[in-house]
Structure formats: C-alpha cells, structure tokens
Amino acid sequence: MFSKATEYALRAVIYIAQKGSPENKISIEEISGAIGSPRSFTAKILQILRKDNRIIQSVTGPQGGFYMTEQHRKLPVRAILTAMNEDHILSKCVLGLHTCNELKPCPMHASYKKIKEQLIQLFETRTIAQLAHEMDAGTAFIKFLGKKKEKRK
Amino acid sequence: MFSKATEYALRAVIYIAQKGSPENKISIEEISGAIGSPRSFTAKILQILRKDNRIIQSVTGPQGGFYMTEQHRKLPVRAILTAMNEDHILSKCVLGLHTCNELKPCPMHASYKKIKEQLIQLFETRTIAQLAHEMDAGTAFIKFLGKKKEKRK
DNA sequence: ATAAATAAGGACAAAAATATCCTTAATTAC
DNA sequence: GTAATTAAGGATATTTTTGTCCTTATTTAT
Fold first, then answer.
1. CATH number reported for the structural domain that contains residue A112 in this entry
2. Given this model, what pLDDT does residue B143 score?
3. Mutate to test the interface with A, among B41, B45, B102, B115 (most CBs of A within 10 A)
4. Which is nearest to B40 in space by CA: B49, B30, B26, B29?
5. pLDDT (0 to 100) of residue A147
C-alpha cells in the first residue's frame, strides 16, 4: 500500500511517540534498531518528518535525539502520510485513472469508494498518541524480534 | 496502492474483456491507446498475463491480437493481481511488519483488518466480466480522453 | 576550550520499477 | 511461397526508490 519510506516513517513516529520526550530523546540508532529499518535511510526519513517541526522534533549533541510534544502526538496518523507526500494513496483511483470520479467512474469506483472512505476515516481519526498507547498497554507491538544485520558500520 | 504495471494490467484486461473475442482480437496498439499506457511496457505486461493462458490469450500475425474466453472472463479480479504477483498487497501489514498477526498485532492491525477483509472480498467476488459489463452498460469508463503523446514510434 | 556525541545534509551507490527499441517468430492474405 | 502484420522476447535505457557513506554543524560534558 505505502512505500517502504512511509512504512518506516509510520513505525518510527509511533516508536518515538511511545518512548520519546524532551527529557528522553531517542537516537536514530535506537529507533532503526527497534523498528527494523536501515539506519541511514531512516535518518533521511526522520529529517523529512522533522522539517518545519511538522511531526517530530530533534536536537543534536550528547543526549540529543528525537522526541515529540503532546501536541504532535495528537495529530492524526494521516499527518505522517501527508508529510511523506503519500496522502493521495488514500483517495486515488484503484486503476490509476486520473479521470476517474463520480461522473466518469471507473468500473471499480463504486465498490472501491466505500473502502477508500473507511481508509480516510481510519487515518484521519486515529491519532499517533492512540497507537503509542496501545503499545504501552502491551496490546500492540512494533518490534522486530527477528534476525539483525551482523555488522553495522 | 498497486504498481503502475498492475494498474495497467487491470485496465488492459478489463478492456480486452469488453472488446476482445476470438473473432475480434485487439492489438497492443489499440489497447495501450485506449487505456492510456505506454505501448511497449504494456506489451510486456500482456505477456505476463498471457503466460500459461492464465488471464488472456493471443495470436500473432494479421488479424492477431489479444482476446479472452468466457471462462477467463469469469475469473475474479484478484486473479489479475495474482498474475502480477501483487496479491499480497491485499493482506499485508499496513506498517510493513512481517511479524504482525493476530497474536502480535501492530498498533494499526485491529482497525485496518476490517478494511483488508473488505478489500479481499471485493477483489475476490467481483469478476472481470462484471467490470466489462459496466463499461458495456455505459455506467463505467476506462478511457483517457486527455492528452496523448505527440509522436509515437 | 576541547573532546565526544549526536543529528543534518550532501554526494554517491545499488536496486527496482518503468519504459523503449530492435530482432525474431508466427500467422494471414495474396 | 512472399509479403505484410502482429505478438514474443531480448537487450538496453531511464527514472525512481532504497540505501550507504562521509563531512559538517550543534550541543553537552569535562
């Protein structure tokens, strides 16, 4: 559904929301380790999410890292898609037709429409905080327990 | 949601289902023109769909081209995804976690699950024939009316 | 002030997806 | 059987996505 970059973004933000705060900032190292994403690529993605402090914040230096404010935690998950420039995936035509709309629907339009509406609803109403809380409660998980790269540079 | 290749595949198959028959085979030229896809890339995709006569059939030579049998028209739309090797998109974790399942759900799992079920249901129950019939009935459209490439070789 | 830790950012590399071109094979019309 | 038409298939090119590496800037601790 989404690109790898966006998948990593979603996982990273949820992780930061759960573990990070101004008093406890999280390093790229920890984040990429926890969510199972390539370290340097993740760094790039976090830069995008930090741009204009849209989703996350960061500081350099010792004890530096990434964190979120309460306000940012209240953002809908959709805000992450928007920051990653993949918000359109929720509403685009499933056959990729630019011309598809209510007046000139593609053959899948009517039936797929209901699903799109639910997708948008889901990403719009669920907040980053809610997802983080599920992890706190132990009812949801994001960690890769599996195989790690042997050596990382 | 799907790759461009799969979007083209869906459109091409629906078009062939509507217009093609053993008596009236459709050329790549016509297909790519009608669905607004790059000619040679579309040719590759049609080769994949024709492999083992899974979705479509073809013959070379004058009056040759692509067509479908009634049996193939009865296939669920999902068969196209399977042929294009993108069937997994319907059921994968929205965060891209291989470990995500009922026992170790990701934070989006429970709510996204319902949408996945509907997606699978949609692609499994709707047949290629049904989509073609909507186009016949004039209640659905696939054509690009828009700008075409100036010169095509 | 200096050293250490950390993200920022640029340049580059690798892989995958998308797209084009050319030659070959099959079929049909004549 | 020859020429014309069409898909098959291989090789290559281009673009996008994914990923790595190195240097710089910022902050903190000493």
1. 1.10.10.10
2. 81
3. B115
4. B29
5. 41
Chain B residues with CB under 8 Å of A95 CB are: 7, 10-11, 14, 142
Q: Give residues 47-66 of chain B lying near strand C (Cβ < 7 A).
A: 59-64
- Of the pLDDT bands very low, low, confident and very high (cuts 50, 70, 90), residue A97 is very high
Pairing label, strands A65-67, B57-59: unpaired
Q: What is the per-residue pLDDT for A74?
A: 97
> Poorest-confidence range of A6-15, A127-136, A139-148?
A139-148
User: Is B106 among the domain residues?
Assistant: yes
Tally of domains within chain A:
1
- Assigned domain for A142 exists: no
Residue nearest to nucleotide C3 (CA to C1'): A62
The Cα–Cα gap between B40 and B63 comes to 19
Position A146 pLDDT exceeds 70: no
User: Which of B141, B143, B145 to mutate to test binding with chain A, by most A CBs within 10 Å of its CB?
Assistant: B141
For A54, the domain range is 4-136
Show the low-confidence residues of chain B (pLDDT under 70).
144-153
C23 C1' to B40 CA distance, Å = 15
Chain A residue with Cα closest to B90: A1
Q: What does A53-88 look like in DSSP terms, one character per residue?
A: GSS-EEE-STT-EEE--HHHHTSBTHHHHHHTT-GG
Mean pLDDT of A89-97: 97
Task: Answer yes or no: is A29 within a domain.
Answer: yes
Query: Which residues of chain B have a CB within 8 Å of the CB of A114?
Result: 118
Distances (CA, A) of B31 to A1, A74, A124, B52, B59: 27, 48, 38, 21, 15
A149 inside domain:
no
